[in-house]
Amino acid sequence: MFEQLPALQVAITLTAAPLVMLLWKAPRLAWAITLASCWASLAVTLALFGAVADGGSWSYEMGGWAPPWGIEYRVDAANAWILLIIGLVSAIVMPYARESVEREIARDKIALFYSAFLLANAGLIGIAITGDAFNIFVFFEISALASYALIAMGSDRRAVLSAYQYLVMGTVGTTFLLIGIGFLYIMTGTLNLYDLAARLPEVSDTNTVRAAFAFLVVGISLKLALFPLHLWLPNAYSYAPSMVTVFLSATATKVAIYVLLRFIYSVFGFEFSFEELSMQWVLMPLALLGIVIPSVAAVFQDDVKRLLAYSSVAQVGYMILGVSLASALGLMASILHLFNHAITKAALFMAVGCLVYRLGGVSLRRIAGAGQRMPWTMAAFVIAGLSLIGVPLTAGFVTKWHLLQATLEAGYWPVALLLLGSSLLAAMYIWKVVEAAYFREPEDAGADVREAPLALLVPTWALTLATLVFGIWAAFSVGAARTAAEVLLGRGVAW
């Protein structure tokens, strides 16, 4: 059984999805099966992560067909890190989901909702674990189609339009991705990522390979919401059900960034991407614009979910900035931020979901006085907000510290100053929420607004405390990110 773990990683949630769909008359049972599937998937993830944590790899031949002829699942320290993010978030969000989903989704649609969630989860896992380029496209489609359905189930009528906008831009992104993969297949005759890496150097000095690189980068950038290709994200996060926003904000863009890193470093190689094509001069301006402009936009938002959605676009800019530095330390900072931002933003959106549960919405007007009425919820929001800003002793600070080090090491001190300034912008939009919750009187002062149920608060605080744990005890996350960077670079790294 241990040898089958890579296949089980995808199979658990993929096979549970149709079973859950049949339980439309028993929504609680559908939730229980989904919960069990997510926790079983997390157990497999932890076993895989432990097996490759030292920098090794695990290859699994689907159907007994040896790669590159057969489809390969391959686990190393880089994608095991992504699998850990997906596993942890889905396992923690499911206890939270029961109360939240029952409040926001019609009873007869709950089983369909969980089925779509399992498909989205399986798609993201498949993207991370597969060693086949075409399967990356297939799993992207599985995850995306399920995500469109999840977003469209939001109670606000604008959720359907948001899902449609996401569908259009997501389809463009996967089309570009498929064209790029097709070009690579034409030039090499293989779809296996590691076989591609071996064969590409012979044909890298061709316009077809350069075009493939361009199509792949643009297509994946649409998926990860890199500025200015981010227009689908604010609406998708704002109008989706609370549980969907938590899950997608913590996982979907992280998986897309992993795919970008895998193609840039493992398939095309550092020399081709940064020395021949000088990708740093494309990525860095977009990353800096993506940090500043969405942060400014967040300052002017009245809806807290939309505010945090623009913040997510800005955080993608941080991750891409580390990549654009074209250094081992910059890459490590980006990989570290994948994890730290996932737990931070999931905690923030969980706190927002608690507010939605009790208040029905999260405009600044509605959350006025929430600090006194829902003290535990707002305390969690404040702590996670401090992590987003990058205050010491939080996970966000660990990331920004390493990113600043990488920036200064590369000699870009103006960029380092901009990073510090962007933290002030983050402080401004987080303060807007804190000011409304703690220093404004509620408009419905006589209403009986209670704290969120424990089923929502416990998962929220689990991730909130994680932002402190990984801010104080950073050895694990920093060490894992360092190992993942070494694997992607594929050579000895001087730190």
What does this entry show, briefly?
The chain has 495 residues and is mostly helical.
Structure characterization notes:
- The chain is mostly helical.
- It has 2 domains: 1-275, no CATH class; 278-495, no CATH class.
- Helix content is 77%, strand content 2%.
- It is built from 20 helices and 2 strands.
- A two-stranded antiparallel ribbon has the order 1-2.
Q: Provide the succession of SSEs.
A: HHEEHHHHHHHHHHHHHHHHHH
Could you give the order of strands across the largest sheet?
1-2
User: How many β strands by DSSP?
Assistant: 2
Shape: globular
| C-alpha Rg (nearest Å) | 21 Å
Fill in the keyword field for this structure:
mainly alpha, 495 residues, 2% strand, two-stranded antiparallel sheet, 20 helices
Helices and strands in order:
Elements: H1 5-21, H2 27-52, E1 57-61, E2 72-76, H3 77-104, H4 110-129, H5 133-152, H6 158-188, H7 193-203, H8 207-224, H9 232-239, H10 242-268, H11 270-276, H12 280-299, H13 304-324, H14 328-359, H15 370-373, H16 375-389, H17 395-409, H18 413-439, H19 454-472, H20 475-489
Antiparallel strand pairs: 1-2
